[in-house]
Structures are given as C-alpha cells and as structure tokens.
Amino acid sequence: MKKGFTLIELLAVIVILGIIFMIVMPNFIDVINGTRTSLNNEQKNAIIDAARQWGVSNLNEMNGKIYYNGVEKNFVTIDELKNDGFLEDKKIQDMVSKGEISSGTKICIEYKNYQFVYEYNGRC
C-alpha cells in the first residue's frame, strides 16, 4: 500500500488555507492603513511643531497682526522651514496616498487669544 495524500485531501487543505487567508487579510489591510494614517498624523504634528519653533524665533505680533521681518505674514511653507533649518531637507511623503508632499504646503498662522495658532495646510 502506498503512503501519501489523495487529490481530495490536498484540495481540502488548499480550500481551508484560502478561507483562513480571506478571513485574516482584511484585518491585516486595516492594520496597515491605520498605521499609515497614524504616521501621517505624526508627520503633520512634527511639521506644526517645526512651524511653532520657527514662529518663536521669527514672528512678532502687533495689534492682532503677525509680522515676519517687518512684513505681515499669515503662513509659513515647508520649504521655508527646511531652508531655515527647522525641518530636515528631504522629501516628505504622504503615507496614505504615497505621493510627495509639496514643499509649498502652507502652515497657516493666526493670532487668537494672545497666542499664535498653527494649522497644517489650512486655507490661509
């Protein structure tokens, strides 16, 4: 008598593995997408923190208006943050869309309640 597996047994194992894969894969994809979103949020927070540090060094307020080197200013770009040494000079990638974030992306600055408020890529 020969020892081994029949074709039916092999097909049953393949079907069971396929079912397990179909159950696990959506959860795995959700974890990856959640991680990408989390990374994007952390990256935006790091850019806003860099803008805050830049603002402390460069901005003045007078009568509710914001000034940079004597000129009214209501935003700072990622490119300016890189040029002034507040961000590393490297490409910044959007982890969700997998595209590059433009160096011209604006971080809006407002003066509210006696403090500067920063908003990533807002409508300035």
How would you characterize the overall build of this protein?
With 124 residues, the chain is of the alpha+beta class. The protein has one domain (7-120). Helices cover 47% and strands 24% of the residues. It is built from two helices and eight strands. The protein has helices at residues 7-58, 78-83; strands at residues 59-62, 65-68, 71-72, 75-77, 92-93, 100-101, 106-112, 115-120. The strands form three sheets. A three-stranded antiparallel beta sheet has the order 1-2-3. A three-stranded antiparallel beta sheet has the order 4-7-8. The chain has a two-stranded antiparallel ribbon with strand order 5-6. The longest helix has 52 residues, at 7-58. The mean pLDDT is 93.
Summarize the structure.
The chain has 124 residues and is an alpha+beta fold.
